[in-house]
Amino acid sequence: MARNTYKMDERIAAVATSLFALTALGFLQLQRRKQRRQQPNTLMHHDSLVGIRGHKALQPSLSYLEQFLACMPNMCDPLTNPSGYIPLCIAENRLIVDILAERFMQVGTATAIFSDSQVYFYSSFLGMPVTREAAAYFLARRFLFPDELDLGPDKALTHVQPKHVAISAGGAALLNNLFFLLGDAGDACLIPRPYYAAFENDIQFSAGIVPIGIHQRDPAEGPTLAELDAAYSQAVTQGHTPKFILLTNPNNPLGTVYAPQVMLRIIQWARQKRMHTIADEMYALGVHTKTGHGFHSVIQILGNELGNDVHFIWAVSKDFGASGLRVGIVYSQNEVFMQGLATANIFTCVSQPIQYLVSELWTDDQFLDHFLDESRHRTLISYHICISKLQEMVVPFVPATAGIFVYVDFSSLLPEKTFDGEQRFCKLMFDYARIVLTPGESQRDPRPGMFRICYAWVSPAVLAISMERLSRLVAKIRKLDWSDLNERSLQGVLHNT
């Protein structure tokens, strides 16, 4: 493949990003001040500019969003701003965008898209026929038969039928539609803890489903039957009908994969309870090695017999580093659900030019093979930068086999083993190391001091700077009493002085 010629105007991008961040940060701070001034009764919908649901929407879906936005106007650059902020709290893969952009900018791609009159008119809200067929082929080739390199479209579409596939505007939209159509407000969804920070917003905001965390002795191994039963009983005791179990495989935030027998055990348990299983496989193509990683899609595990109660989702956001495209796939053999989705998806359907674009992408096997190989290569470089420094610091972490993050145990460094102590550590990192990580409390980890490091959000050079800062901060905390940690004692964290 020709060397990449994709260039971004960094100055324009930086100005635009800074303006967005300042506006968003100002809005959040304004809302917080207003809420402090208001009495509870003034939040009623008849006394406000928006309704109760509108007030709910004013709350950020991520607890660390304000710190993230505060970083944006003053981001670290190894050459021009080495003291800038480094957010490592957002699970996006920015290491591979140049490869994807080069593919999308191929001569003829835009012409092919916009010369097809179908992209200008209404189509099924489940997706254009060409896109659903491309998605069905993609699922068969990459998830059901990943080792059949010569799998043709005809064979693929006899296994994964396009009528069971729909396209929606990203993972959050897919989850929202599944919960909205398959459950009722007040039903419960069981989720192994810790879990992705924004799941609760995806589950609750429109559908009104109640998240119930499954406490696990060993999160990397998955919940035992006893742990599943305990979470089920908790939901019932609280007055909720357990309707769903949501599994993320590969796991976010752990970066581990569930063994096939674990997935089968959980699905069989859920079926005995007459519950739906939702398999979120957002990081399925982001395994760190081409073979020997141990990951098997739920589609493959069940022999493509999902029935009416197992539903698969995937999106371009993570494995393709393209969260801005807002494209996701749901695969469900529940045809009544699919009929309902044909109506509900009008609110979250994907624009047809973008559908056409990803259709071309999902069927370009030569490009995808190259892309996934290069993605693994770049991801592993950053992963090893991260874990080598953690090992040097003697800080425990969960070894990852997939994904774009490392789950780290900083509990020994907290001033106290509480979530207040975790917040104090967060503030110390932000104020003196200018780093933002994803805190465990927002991921419903019961153990204070667990953090997710999203190492693919920055370049390897910036990541190396962040890990050096973190190392110096850890050394200061171990050397000094927390009461002695102040601007003077921590002045060497940003620069080794």
Task: Give a quick precis of the structure.
By secondary structure, the protein is of the alpha/beta class.
Q: Can you put this structure into words, describing what you see?
A:
By secondary structure, the protein is of the alpha/beta class. The protein is built from 18 helices and 12 strands. The protein has helices at residues 10-37, 52-57, 65-71, 97-104, 109-114, 129-144, 153-159, 171-182, 199-204, 225-237, 260-272, 298-301, 316-319, 335-344, 352-362, 365-393, 419-433, 460-479; strands spanning 86-88, 165-168, 188-192, 210-214, 242-248, 276-280, 310-315, 328-332, 397-398, 406-409, 435-439, 450-453. A 7-stranded mixed sheet has the order 2-8-7-6-5-3-4, with helices on both faces. Helix 6 crosses helix 7 (153-159), helix 6 (129-144) runs parallel beside helix 15 (352-362) and helix 8 (171-182) packs across helix 14. The longest helix has 29 residues, at 365-393. The relative contact order is 0.13.
